[in-house]
């Protein structure tokens, strides 16, 4: 009976402490998340029938201007950027030279507010009415590597903090188990 009380005195606080520790994990989850692309303008897979002055990407959280890139190119890998990427809060935009009718690929890379890069690409087409075709760009830019074809990816820039929480919980359980074992051994010797 005495061992049961000792175990109850040790296990219940340990379990309660673990519950309190783990209760804070969901609240901290947004800090672990990286920016997600919510939408683009022009939208992925659409055909635009009016001139495009800029390509816009909207994210679910703030993105940083430094090291964020947007590459807009046609089927011949001619680039259409007209100046640097502009970032304002959750929106990243790339002004472009006038786009003629055709298919375009946009490869982007954004730096989340937490410093982690996210990247992806999307495609759209332009179908301007006759007489609205712009003059071709004066000099095409040389091709450089952009984001790989496929879905949006996230590349961690450092250790994932959630593993510290898991490690702390495991350490807490190990300490509680060790204390129970030590107390249980003492109780058995004092009988």
From TrEMBL:
Top-level taxon of the source organism: Bacteria
Transmembrane segments: 163-182
Annotated protein name in UniProt: CopC domain-containing protein
Region (Disordered) residue spans: 130-155
GO molecular function, one term: copper ion binding
Biased composition (Pro residues): 131-145
Gene3D superfamilies xrefs: 2.60.40.1220
Transmembrane keyword on record: yes
Species name: Micromonospora pisi
All copies of domain CopC, residue ranges: 34-126
Record-linked InterPro entries: CopC/D (IPR032694), CopC_dom (IPR007348), Cu-Rt/internalin_Ig-like (IPR014755), Ig_E-set (IPR014756)
Major place of residence: other
Composition bias, Low complexity: 146-155
GO annotation terms (biological process): copper ion transport; response to copper ion
One matching Pfam family: CopC
Subcellular location: Cell envelope
Cellular component GO terms held in the UniProt record: cell envelope; periplasmic space; plasma membrane
Keyword Transmembrane helix: yes
Keywords: Copper, Membrane, Metal-binding, Signal, Transmembrane, Transmembrane helix
